[in-house]
Predict the 3D structure of the following.
Amino acid sequence: MTDPEPQVRAAGGVLWRPGPEGGREWAVVHRPRYDDWSLPKGKLREGESLEAAALREVLEETGMHARLGPHVGTTRYLDNKGRTKTADYWLMEAVDGGFADNSEVDELRWLGAEAAVALLSHEHDRRLLARVAAEEPAAG
């Protein structure tokens, strides 16, 4: 009997910034490798905490330095290799930085909650963002 393949651990952010009319805009990234729209996230490095991984991945994928807020959820799904992937997310406020396309992400969009949820490719991301956006007070 062989051991099952280890679970994949990931972390990311539900990244927001103040919108032009007092609400919040939410970051959604396009990953050309998968041709999908996703919340920024990625796999943990060995010895890295979930929080550190979440901040690193948000910076790598969006170019934004972020302020870590509360843990807002965990998603579990099968990755493209059939492994169970668990991703923990934190609410994060973008504080500075700027997007530049890179090997993982070729586009970043800042959208209102409804448009961001509609653009996301995966149901687990849509559910998470819709819940977080509904629970968060408007910025400002």
